Amino acid sequence: MLRNAFAYITRKWPKSLLLFAIILLMGTLSLIGLSMKGATQKASSESLGSITNSFSMQINRRTNPGTPRGAGNLRGEDIEKISQVEGITSSIKRINAIADILDHEIIETEETLQNQSPERAKQFKNTLMVTGVNDSSKEDKFVSGAYKLVQGEHLTDKDKNQILMHEDLAKKNGLKVGDKVRLKSNLYDADNEKGANETVEVTIKGLFSGKNQAPLTYAQELYEDTLISDLDTAAKLYGNTVQTATYEDATFFAKGDQDLDQLIEKIKALDIPWNYFDLVKSSSNYPALQKSISSMFQVSDYLFIGSLIFASLLLTLLLVLWLNARRREVGILLALGLSKVQIAGQFVAELVMISIPAFLLSYGVAGLLAKAVGDTVLKNVTSGIAKQMAQESSAANLGGGAEAESFSKTLTDLHMDIQPNQLLVIVLVGGLLLILVSILSSQWLLHKKPKELLVDVE
Prior knowledge:
By secondary structure, this protein is of the alpha+beta class.
């Protein structure tokens, strides 16, 4: 049987070559689909990380306009109440402020200078955005990848009078980790309701990198003109303490096995004016990232399943046509006493002999093409999502800062590689499909009697 199968595929090499090409294509595409799914799963875990078991407390903008500048106005006592709930492991609090940097210059671009009126230039000439946080490693902009620490260390809840500065701002002013700078309250800041006129000397604990991707209006939207500080420093700039300050928002991290929905319902029973505030799952703050991940999963499934179905249908059609031309051969074999099982076994053996080298070669071809295909698919998926998010961001008036770009963040890279276990899956699944295709396509022929087949030929 095996000898006959080998003799046939070598004698009919053009047909064998066509079957080989179809199986090679099926194996290559399905391998790339599996690799894409695995790479997306890995990227999802790395991108979302702790986001999936956390939620944030934010102002409800329908009922709460926030501070005069539109920032959050959460109370420290409410944040503390939530932090004490069983199931909460830690929390991240943020205070937004602006401050003038003394004896140094901020970074301006042609774009920001064009939007700067003489009055604004006078009032905010050396003004920086300041985000106070009790753990900068878990601050949204670092979690989303908008910022990346390149020197020094992250801020912790034990730090006071410490900041993280953008590496370009430090370079412009000849500053390095360990240097001290002075920050001063800005009297023109609408959120400086107490009219605080504080000067705080801070030490640069670390430097971070990051570049704006979206259009912006003012210098203070530049990543380069943003400082990350400890909570105490940000509170002082408005004449407050950590206890009396108003907070932009707070993120709460739950135990790994905690049901977030149940925990949120439990927290909403606390004595907090919930008509002014919302509890939002942190994953909801990254809609573009979630959409890009789900879209990549969908494409990888389509590629894997679609290639198997398409190849199976095409092979079935070709085999039915070619087996029809082998009626005489089948009739003679049946007349010589060979069983239908033996003949069907030969057909299966022929397909297996062609498919084994095709599957092995597909492993190499998929390895060569995987990155290019993955990058192309990712680019097409994310470009459409990015446009949609940009429109939504513009409609929501989120501006061009890092907060808006976290909203619009998508997957940026896939590490595509073909694994041997993926080839094993393709060989098993593809092999079963090919055997099934071979049996189904020969069924009509094997049901006939030898005389019928030979008469049909005549």
